[in-house]
Amino acid sequence: HDYESDYSEGIRTSNDLYQFCKSAVHTPSLLGDGSGGLLTLSVSTTYASKVPKELCHSHYTALTVKNSLVDSVRELRDDGERPDVDVYDADVPIVAVIRGRRIDNGRRRDWRQRERNHHYEANFQAEEEDSLVADVDIYRCLHSGGSAHRRGYRKMSSEDSDDAVIHRAAMKESLAAGLLLQAGWDKLVNAARGDGMGAVLIDPMAGSATLPVEAALIACDMAPGLSRIASWRSGDGSRNPHRYPPAIRWKSFSDIETWDELLNDATSRAMTGMKFASSSMGNGKNNVSIYCNEKNPGAAQLARSSIKNAGVTRIVSLSEGDCIDWNLEKDDGISCTIPSRTIFVSNPPWGKRLSQDIDDSWVNLREFIRREATGCEVWVLSGNKDLTKILRMKKSKSMAIRTADEELKWLQYHVFQKREVSV
Predict the structure, then answer these.
(1) In contact, 20 and 65? CB cutoff 8 Å
(2) CB 151 within 8 A of CB 310
(3) CA 1 to chain centre
């Protein structure tokens, strides 16, 4: 594109940002060539580091980017109209990524003078601000309706239903799916498809059942986006942004038939997968069985809601109570586990501040594993090595996980049959 100004030295002011967007963004490919109907847009910002003072307010920075883009569209059109803003379901959701950096302004700083001269301190801070610039990248999003890690089966606000609201610190669905793949759950399910010997997953401390539900979706070969489409509700009859995402509304997109084929194929695979997972092996067990347990009544309510909303009640069973009292034998005396075909997973409480309740939870988890998981592999997520020691087990594998500001470990254990000691 033709740049009216050289922004290689960075952007300092809102006017710089406005002019940069007008000159650097090819508006016809983003919002249309000025003919035909107008596409709606939205603009959000994200910051990677400290930026110049005039650009640090996210709302006004997004407003500057928006004004620049819509003014460019107006200049292209004979009728002088501007695109409308739709913050909920824009045709073109735009994200401006603002990265701050410092440049050398050629001024020598006397650090010793700064320490003994308050007047110099003020000048120094002004120079520091003067050396701060921003680089800006403009992206358009393929989807809208919130972060793509959300599947739609968890209740995120009190307006969704009468159920309890998921805790904002709950494990992300995408993280749960990644942990399960690392544990080999998908491989175990594929083995069950081939030999008919079944696959079992057990979570004794399920919380809101994120791990069990994600395990069910993997077992059913259900694409994550399908549950977003199915669970979306609108009180005003507006368009489903997951069924009709922004990308298929762009003027450069002309293959809606391919999108529909992809959706139909994903739906067919999910239906086939559910039929397989919920079918009986002939011994009273399904091809895929997922058992979970939760002690806290509020968390159990969330778990029950998520299992129902995800449509996996046929393969996920929920029990309530302390895991130390959870017996995996069915009424007929047959164990829920299948030797060499069962994976135990758990995300027990691991707060930085230790308490007797947390310690007791890990002790109970240890006793449950020793009693019920013989001959199986166990995966435990922990953010506190002191708590992990309570298990008194030798780990087989350790995988480092970083989520938000937490450093976690996904730990694998193999539980072997205790040898009898002869006297």
Answers:
(1) no
(2) yes
(3) 36
**What residues form DSSP beta bridges with 135?**
99
pTM of the complete model:
0.80
State how far the Cα of 53 lies from the Cα of 13, in Å rounded to an integer. Answer: 8
Amino acid (one-letter) located at 345 = V
Are the CB atoms for 312 and 220 separated by under 8 Å?
yes
| Nearest-angstrom CA–CA distance, 101 and 9 | 10
CB 95 within 8 A of CB 137: no
Distance CA 40, CA 178 (A): 35
Q: Which two tokens stand for residue 130?
A: 């003067």
Please give the biggest Cα pair distance in the chain: 98
**pLDDT in single tens digits along all 423 residues of the chain:** 344 456 777 899 999 999 999 988 888 888 876 676 788 899 999 998 889 999 999 999 999 999 999 999 988 888 888 889 998 889 999 999 999 988 875 544 444 454 555 554 555 455 556 778 999 999 988 887 677 778 888 875 544 444 555 655 578 999 999 999 999 999 999 999 999 899 999 999 999 999 999 999 999 999 988 888 887 776 666 788 888 888 888 877 767 888 899 999 999 999 999 999 999 987 778 999 999 999 999 999 999 999 999 999 999 999 999 999 999 987 666 788 998 899 999 999 877 554 668 889 999 999 999 999 998 999 999 988 889 999 999 999 999 998 877 889 999 999 987 655 454
User: For residue 204, which amino acid is it?
Assistant: P
Do residues 85 and 62 lie in contact, with contact meaning Cβ atoms separated by under 8 Å?
A: no
Spatial CB neighbours of 282, under 8 Å, sequence gap ≥ 6: none
d(CA 423, CA 381): 39
The answer to whether 94 and 44 are in contact (CB under 8 A) is: yes
CA-to-CA distance for 161 and 107, rounded, in angstroms?
Answer: 60
DSSP 233-263: --SS----TTTS-GGGGSTT---HHHHHHHH
Which sign, positive or negative, has the C-alpha torsion 81, 85, 90, 96?
positive
Report how far residue 405's alpha carbon sits from residue 298's, in angstroms, rounded to the nearest whole number.
Answer: 26
